[in-house]
Design brief:
The complex is a heterodimer of chains A (323) and B (326). A 6-stranded antiparallel beta sheet of chain A has the order 8-7-6-5-9-10. The longest helix of chain A is centred in the N-terminal third of the chain and has 14 residues. Chain A contains 13 helices and 10 strands. Helices cover 37% and strands 17% of the residues of chain B. Chain B contains 14 helices and 9 strands. In chain B, strand 8 and strand 9 form a beta hairpin. Classes of the chains: A alpha+beta (323), B alpha+beta (326). At the A-B interface, strand 8 of A face loops of B.
């Protein structure tokens, strides 16, 4: 029942009559057809503008259906261990410590005192369930002498990660000060274990949101990876509007130069090459004044964000990624 | 005539294929072109610059094409007023306060005046009065002219304007120093007041000293409020150009200088017109301010549609509906 409501819910978000230039039924049928033929879901069909694309153009885009195939290839030969290291936030920060600059405390093996001390030290923290994705369950907490012990006792022994709130670069913070606005950047490994960057997007939270995830009301902006510049309007997952200016702060986004872009590119390439087998990864990267901070890796990733520049990346990934 | 058409279609097809476009086979494309011409009034230029071979009917409908342009301009701009504005010498006379440079008109200039002008200015442009799209525009260096009388005599056969070269503002020059890089700012008078409905930046590439789209110049969309470029650039041959191929200037985010002055100038200029509702003003940027190059009361909206590959018919329809014809 839940899946049916979710399915129907994804349709009800959009104004089909306007999308279909006054006729909702043909475009709804086309959306359904695209689901079967291209492997898109409703949101992707709208956000990537599939209703405007001929089949010739649609074939160039990675869709959810095609991503499943790519992920299968990517995981070929990977051990359970390698998968866990990338999927579990706690294991991730340990392996990729070189790129994790923020203070980070796994609560599984920590005592309540240690957790309380950590929160006191950093003042404002994020509490993340180690095994969740898509921004689910993440909450912010501020240090308060009255409540910190209660919170610490709740977390101790459970699989959470308590993390220092990243102090992001002022240019990025200005986009939406309430959330850490991260970059999703996709890499693939080729046959010779060399990593290639496929595409990137800056995600920024909705007004007052602490998370920036696309599936949680955030707006995503395409980045030109060669120049580290936002090269197009933003999109959300829940409407058919384009956002040249960020809705929360009215900042004009197109043309925004991402600071420390060379460091971003070098870091994700290096990190990607640290994998044994996993070849197709979506990295979440925060930009700080000092450099970059890799938040996490996603081996099951959405493919809409880094195609918001309206360039289909499927042929490129097929060509580059190891078989 | 159909022979020429097929030849032009062929040339455009070959050019697109050479640029790496994934085209359907010739027969399919020509058939699709013929249907588009019938249904949407799109010419060969329209078909290729808007990549119609890739687009669905639902999307093609959104574009202003040649046929729709003609209908629109006939509805919103009076023919005599349009001709006057299109005529470069008449424009220079009507808008002399906005030019910020010296110009002459042929006929209307004797040889001595012409020679003195050439010697004083050292460089100048010669532009046919009634042609557009940069056609026939020639730049001269006085020192390189072997026989100035012969040049003067050659211009007597038609109408021309002679214009001193603009000293371009250094920020705009940084995009491509060899050309005067202008902005086309489009105004519309809806019978109540004049509004700016869109703007684009145009720049030359390579050795070209003109920035026109039809001459291969790059075009990018400008945000009317801030004067920042808010798209990648495009031209007849390339889409999604982030950096200028010669200077490396990054287009998205580039701030056009003196933007408020530019807006104020075109609004003032538009308010002086009679019988004209829609104009695309070509604005150049000089040290300390702006000046007008020319006005286009029937300019091709390719500059509004090509960088984004999105049609503006809905905008034009809305504009047209605000004009109530007597």
């Amino acid at each position: 029942m839940n899946r049916i409501t979710q399915y129907l819910g994804s349709y009800s978000k959009f104004d089909w009559k306007t999308i279909g230039n006054g006729h909702a039924v043909p475009v709804l049928l086309d959306c359904f057809k695209s689901r079967l033929v291209d492997g898109t879901n409703t949101e992707q069909y709208i956000t990537l503008g599939f209703y405007r694309k001929s089949q010739r153009e649609r074939n160039l885009f990675v869709t959810n259906g095609k991503t499943v195939k790519l992920e299968k290839i990517s995981r070929r030969g990977a051990t359970k261990e390698e998968l866990s290291t990338l999927q579990n936030k706690r294991l991730f920060v340990k392996k990729y410590a070189k790129y994790v600059k923020r203070g980070s405390l796994p609560t599984k093996d920590a005592s309540a005192q240690e957790i309380a001390a950590f929160i006191e030290k950093h003042g404002r923290v994020l509490i993340k369930p180690a095994a969740e994705t898509q921004g689910r369950g993440i909450e912010a907490a501020d240090y308060s002498p009255d409540t910190v012990m209660q919170l610490a006792e709740k977390l101790a022994g459970k699989d959470f990660l308590v993390e220092q709130f990243i102090k992001q670069h002022p240019v990025i913070s200005a986009v939406n000060p309430s959330s850490v606005n991260t970059i999703r950047i996709c890499t693939v490994l080729d046959d010779s274990h060399k990593a290639h960057v496929i595409g990137a997007a800056l995600r920024s939270g909705g007004k007052d949101s602490v998370v920036d995830n696309f599936h949680h009301g955030g707006v995503a902006y395409p980045i030109d990876i060669e120049n580290g510049v936002i090269c197009g309007s933003g999109r959300t997952n829940s409407d058919n509007k384009t956002y040249a200016r960020h809705p929360a702060t009215d900042t004009l986004m197109i043309g925004l130069k991402i600071p420390n872009w060379d460091t971003v590119m070098n870091s994700v390439v290096e990190a990607a090459e640290m994998s044994d087998r996993i070849a197709y990864i979506g990295w979440d990267v925060a930009i700080t004044e000092e450099g970059v901070d890799i938040i996490e890796a996603n081996i099951g990733q959405g493919c809409t964000m880094w195609q918001l520049d309206n360039v289909g990346k499927y042929p490129e990934i097929c060509r580059l990624m190891r078989k | 005539m159909s022979g020429n058409y097929i030849k032009k279609l062929n040339t455009c097809y070959e050019e697109a294929a050479k640029n790496g476009e994934l085209l359907p086979n010739k027969f399919n494309l020509y058939f699709d072109f013929a249907c588009s011409l019938l249904l949407y009034g799109s010419t060969i230029s329209d078909y290729f610059q808007y990549r119609f071979w890739e687009k669905k009917a639902i999307v093609k409908k959104e574009f202003m094409t040649a046929r729709k342009n003609n209908e629109f301009y006939a509805a919103v701009n009076d023919r005599p007023a349009r001709s006057r504005l299109n005529h470069k010498a008449q424009f220079n006379s009507d808008f002399r306060d906005y030019l910020k440079r010296d110009t002459l008109a042929i006929p209307g200039t004797d040889f001595e005046e012409f020679k003195k002008f050439a010697q004083e200015k050292k460089q100048f442009f010669v532009k046919p009065c009634k042609l557009g799209a940069g056609v026939g525009v020639t730049k001269y260096n006085t020192d390189e002219i072997k026989d100035i009388k012969a040049l003067y005599d050659s211009l007597q056969s038609a109408e021309y304007v002679i214009a001193e070269c603009i000293s371009q503002d250094e920020i705009m020059a940084s995009i491509h120093p060899e050309s005067i890089n202008t902005c086309r700012i489009i105004t519309f008078f809806d019978n109540k007041d004049v509004k700016i409905i869109g703007a684009v930046m145009r720049c030359g590439v390579g050795k070209s000293y003109i920035d026109n789209h039809s001459a291969g110049g790059l075009t990018a969309t400008v945000d009317v409020e801030s004067g920042k470029i808010v798209s990648c650039a495009s031209n007849k041959f390339h889409m999604n150009v982030v950096r200028h191929p010669d200077t490396g200037i990054i287009f998205p985010g580039f701030q056009i200088p003196y933007w408020d002055q530019a807006k104020e100038m075109v609004l003032q200029a538009a308010a002086t017109l009679n019988g004209i509702h829609y104009v695309g003003w070509d604005v150049a940027f000089i040290p300390g301010g702006v000046c007008l190059i020319e006005a286009n009361p029937s300019g091709d909206p390719v500059v509004l549609q090509e960088p984004s590959q999105r049609g503006v018919k809905s905008v034009f329809d809305k504009m047209q509906s605000t004009i109530k014809q007597p």
